[in-house]
Each structure stands twice: as C-alpha cells, then as structure tokens.
Amino acid sequence: MNAFYDILIVGAGHAGAQAAIALRQKKFEGSIGLVGNEKYPPYERPPLSKEYLAGEKPFERILLRPESFWAERDIDLLTGRRVSKLDPISKKVTLTSDDEIGYGKLIWATGGSPRMLDCPGSQARNIHAVRSRADVDKIMAALPSVKKVVVIGGGYIGLEAAAVLTKLGKQITVVESLDRVLSRVAGETLSRFFEAEHRRHGVTIELEATVAGFETGDDGIATAVKLADGRTLEADMFVVGIGIIPETGPLVAAGAATGNGVDVDQHCRTSLEDVYAIGDCAAHSNAYADGAMIRLESVQNANDQAKVAALDILGEEAEYDAVPWFWSNQYDLRLQTVGLSTGHDSYVVRGDPDSRSFSVIYYRDGKVVALDCVNATKDYVQGRKAVVEGLNLDKDELVNTDIPLKEVGIH
Question: Interior CA angle at 266 toward 106 and 15, to 5°?
Fold first, then answer.
C-alpha cells in the first residue's frame, strides 16, 4: 500500500479520532487517513478500567462513534497498522509492513504504551496492563479461575481496577511504592480517604512497597510478587498500573524536540514542519502548571488539543489554554477534579469526608489552583471559575457548606 493523504493522523485513540471529527465538522474536504495499531475502530479508554472490565458495558457501547461513521465522513480508517519511521523531508511515514504513506500535514496522536516492570519474572503470562481492549479482554478471560489479585500501582488506573475486581468478588492487594495512593495527583486528605474506602471494601493496601521480582512456575505463570523488604504476596493474577511511556520513537528519530513526550507549541505544532502532536504523547507549556512543560493524560486534553490542531491546520486562530479536568469512578464514589494541584502550598477541606461527599480546594500563592470533588458535583461545576480566574476564595466561608461555592467571598 502506497498512499497519500492531505492530512494523515497517526493514532486512533481519543485525540486522533477527535482531530478527524473536528476537521470534517469544519468542512475540510481533503483526504484524511487515520492510522491505528489496533484492529478496532476508535473507542473510549476510561471505561476499560471501569464499566468494560466490570462487564457493565459491551465493547459496542464504548465506541467513540458507530463503525459506519468513519466511511460516511470519508475518513479512511487504517486499523491494525503501526508507523515505524517518519521522513519529514519527503513527508511520508513508513509502516512496519514497509508500506509508505505520504502526507500534506501529519498529526501524531499515538498516546503511550503501558509502563511495565522490568525485573525477574515480569514477563509471566498472568501479569497484565490496563491500556487496551486486548489487555482487559485477557484479564476478563482469566477471571473465572482467579481468586487473588495483586494490583501494582496506586494511581487512578490501579485503584479503579481494584474497585471493579473487588466488586467481582476477588481478594485484592494494592502495592504502592510511595507513602500514599494518588500521591502524584492529589493531596494527602484525598489519598487517605481513598485508602480508607478501599480497606473498608476489603482491599489490602501495601504502601512504600517496592517490587523486586516475581516467583514463577515452570509453566511461565507468576505465583507471587516479591517485595524489596523480603516479603512475598501470593496471587493468581497481577495487574500493573504504573503509568505510560509516550510513543514518540519515529518523531525522536526524525529530529523532533522531545523531553517527556514530544514538545509542542501553543498551536500543537512540533519542531518538525507540518507535523503536529496531540494527546498523551504531547508535552506543552501549561498555564495551570505555572507554564511548565507537562503531558496531560486525559480525555479533556486529547479532545481540546485535537480541536486546536485541526483549526490551526485550517488557518484559523487557535491556541491551547484549556483548564485541565479529570474524573475517576471507584465503588459508588465519583471523583471530579478541575485544575492541577501539583505544587499547592495550602488547602481547605469543604464538607466531611466521613459523609463521603466533600471537596478539597488547593491554593498556591493565595490563588485557587485545583479542586478535588468527591460526590460533590455542584462544587466541581461552581469551582471551575475559581481555577480559571485564579481567585483567592475566603477559606472561612469555603468550609461552610451552607454557602454555595459560587457565593463564597473573594479576597
């Protein structure tokens, strides 16, 4: 296959799919190719560790669009293909099959591959990631014969998987290398709340526990994880949720500016001519992180950057300045986050965590920078303005839940 597209999008996740959709919505009439390394049409990722793993949503219900949508919009869906090389001079990519595809503009939206452990026994067949449909299908297929599961990683993915597997009747242990869960994304109040919730549901949580390796049988199946302190935790299955590695190899080889991901400007352009990058793999200067170059692994970031790249390609004025937001479902708890709490210097707890409905409002230099809202959607909706405008909300009024957040005074 040797082809050419006016716009070639590499990566068929949230970001890549949204870029193609945005281009057609803006009446772009040129050719669009959407390359995905999976055999499926674009689908939602967040439900993989929630409703899909729980068996509550079949795959058809997590498709981003019905399968017929892409052909109807004249978007060529090139599934089951992976780009191995990029030549920005001749403006073409090479697939692992050695086929070449030329482009006018290229949007790189590959996301990342799950970061796995590199230690003795870590290649065992019953050690799983939670990144793709195939990953979760393997977990689901094995579950009937599984009683004990060790989840390695106490971030969103690990805790969501732990919650679902607990509801499915499995005995769960979460292993976290730091001194609290969610330590990279939330303050201590929220971390301790979720630790207590999981323990209340029978989950064992091992903090400051580093994995040294796995014990495996002759059949290549892991039977226990070995911790650095000498303990072993036996299990039938192991689920690893310790982040992703941005998939940027061909861009790096082609000379793109990279660091933690591929660097992009406010228009989502890379340092390579006519090459954009969006989503989990793109590092950008973020106003809500004091201008630091960061990657955001979220649907919000993927969708918003996709729209910016599409508009810039079409010659319209667009810059990425969206406020970050995230969510996580665990048991009957809905966590909604707006802003970035990293680097906060103080916080206020609004409501009573024991009531299982409360918010944590984070400050930096006297300005609200983020909110974590647990079963408190009104706070989440009303608190967005405080984050966007960097307001200094009155802390004494904030703790009074009788005062709606939008009516809290400003210093």
Answer: 50
List C-alpha distances in Å: 394 to 236, 342, 366, 367, 405.
51, 21, 10, 10, 10
Note the pLDDT tens digit of each residue in 67-122: 999 999 999 999 999 999 999 999 999 999 999 999 999 999 999 999 999 999 99
Domain with CATH 3.50.50.60 in the chain: 2-113+245-313, 116-240
Give me the CATH code for the 2-113+245-313 domain, please: 3.50.50.60
Q: Which homologous superfamily does the CATH classification assign to the domain defined by 332-407?
A: FAD/NAD-linked reductase, C-terminal dimerisation domain (3.30.390.30)
* pLDDT digits 0-9 by tens, 285-322: 999 999 999 999 999 999 999 999 999 999 999 999 99
375-401 burial, b for 16+ CB within 10 Å, e for fewer? bbeebbebbbebbbebbebeeebbeeb
Classify residue 63 by its DSSP letter: B
Span(s) in the chain for CATH 3.30.390.30 = 332-407
* Phi, psi angles (nearest 5°) of residue 368: -70, 125
Amino acid identity at 159 = L
CATH 1.20.1250.20, domain 116-240, yes or no: no
pTM of the predicted structure, to 2 decimals:
0.95
What is the four-CA torsion angle of 134, 170, 146, 221, rounded to 10 degrees?
A: 80
